[in-house]
Amino acid sequence: MKNLIKYMLIVSVFAGITSCDDFLEPIDENRLGADFINTDPASAEGLLLQGYSRLIDQFSFSEAATDDAVNNQLTNGYKRMALGELNAQYNPASRWNNYESVLWVNKFLEVLDAGKIVWSKNDEINEMFYMRMRGEALALRALHHFYVLQAHAGVSTSGQLLGVPYITDYIESDGNFNRPRLSFEATVQAIMADFDAALALLPTDYSADQTGIDAAYQNYDYNNYIVVNGPDYNLRISGRIVKALKARLALFAASPSFLNSQEYYSSAASFASEVLSTIGGVSGLPANGIDYYKSYSQTNDDEMIWRGSAQSPSSSVERDLFPPSLNGRGNINPTQNFVDAFPMASGYPATAANGYDAQNPYANRDPRLAEFVIYNGSSFGGKTINTGVGGAIDRVDSIAQFSTTTGYYLKKLLRPDVKINDNNTSNNQIHYDVYFRYTELFLIFAEAANEAGGPDQAINGMTAREVIGVIRARAGLAQPDSYLASITSKEAMRELIRNERRLELSFEGHRFWDLRRWGASLNETAKGSFFDGTDYLELPAVESRNYQPFATYMPIPNAEVLKFSELEQNNGW
Fold first, then answer.
1. Which pLDDT band holds residue 570 (cuts at 50, 70, 90)?
2. Closest CA to 392 of 406, 373, 379, 410
3. How far apart are CA 105 and CA 99, in angstroms?
């Protein structure tokens, strides 16, 4: 928490020394301190923008710590976690440093409250800038606390379900960082309170649409409103994003490992449906939700609730994940466990009774399997990728320590128009960070609505069954969906929803956290498959998982517990 700079420095060039008196005077270091930040709009906003650091995007590949993937790099942090190295001193999934972003926004709020900044000479514009930026800061403070809560909440050594410290002030480097953890529910309520306060100040969307101006801004001149809340700011956190984040938080809190609460499930479904109703409910499920990553088109952004700005063209993700024959490292290897989760094209589970053939395992399967996974015989990048015996150049893509370890490569999130040449050049393409997709919000609604009232409980005009139905129809499964129709109980629908979430949000950093909040097993052995030239052979133990029984709740960093007596560690660490 103490890694904040206290002053901002600028470099100045002096033309010369004009007298002996000047020579004898101490040189002004030209150091700009708090007084300057308190009055300079650009410097103050710089503090706020620091709050946009450490946002969690889709590129963590934490699935390597789960039953969905194996990382073929021996030094990978998630691999080491999965193999048993997770402890209070070594935790690659820790988010304790998100408190630094909390302190940045708290400093910004302190500056804002000083009331010395003039954003504009126009009083209306100035007032709206105060409102909107305060809303951003409160929302970001809540979000970063949620990130810490997700990683570090748990049953403590005293047996209580604890959350994390909630910090609402800026702490100087010599200040008091010794803050106790709140109860889990008190932390959730503190986050919700900041989200709600932000909602009263933020526009729902940054838009030029006069009909979409929120009540808080109705009495302001439209031309002034556009200066502050126009489309130029549409990647900043907004009211729509905050409502979606409230749904994510409520679902997390409601989950079996935490409050197991019908009230929070109902809230999550209600929050999600409020946003989804603005796009037409189930009829508004974006068509590009399965393959949004193929182009990152800013003119077809329907799937995005919140994303970052377009990055400079690159091929770094593809270099890490392409198979070796396409000049990639093939780092992330989906498991047979993950492949088995894809149903048959009929929508029924992939079992022999439903037409699954173990010696023709990829025939008549859910189309998402071919969309997300490179399996033996797949066509990708202009080549046929053979991960077993036969084809390829010297079996370069076949199972080995530094190619695939499971018989599979990842296809999802990779731009198929990237080509990495033998001379190491490439035609780089645009990517951007994704923070929240509509597909996730639909799945949040489905899970929460089912837990609150079962498959057919209508909440604001939608049911879990309807949502799962449109998601599976978009995936290309057979219609009518007889398997979905056969599900009548909350328990059976729960398993289907969890499986759809596993597939739809795969390799975007969700499963690692989902297994923990559901209280599901963390120690499912990662399996693979190998084609020996004649038969497909199951590899039953590609990589064992070795989590402690208390690893559902991850540790508070040991260094923090040693420094601060008020911090109580989670049980077992």
1. very high
2. 379
3. 10
**Mean pLDDT confidence for 535-561:** 97
Measure CA of the first residue to CA of the last residue in the chain; give whole Å.
21
Residues 6+ apart with CB under 8 A from 99: 1, 144, 148, 167
Rounded to the nearest 5°, which phi and psi values hold at 450? -65, -45
pLDDT at site 394: 64
Angle at 385 between CA 381 and CA 389, to 5 degrees: 165
Q: What is the pLDDT of residue 391?
A: 59
**Could you give the 3-state DSSP secondary structure of residue 378?**
strand
Query: 96, 91, 87: which is closest to 149 by C-alpha?
Result: 96
Work out the angle at residue 96's Cα, subtended by the Cα atoms of residues 91 and 101, and round it to the nearest 5 degrees.
140
Structure tokens at 299: 């003119």
DSSP string across 350-371: SSGGGT--TTSTTTTB-HHHHH
* Alpha helix (H) residue ranges in 373-510: 438-453, 464-475, 482-486, 490-504
Which H/E stretch holds residue 321?
A: helix 316-321
Q: pLDDT tens digit string along 448-504?
A: 999 999 999 999 999 999 999 999 999 999 999 999 999 999 999 999 999 999 999
Better-scored residue on pLDDT, 39 or 60: 60
Q: Is the pLDDT of residue 21 over 70?
A: no
What's the rounded Cα separation, in Å, for the pair 165 and 149?
A: 9
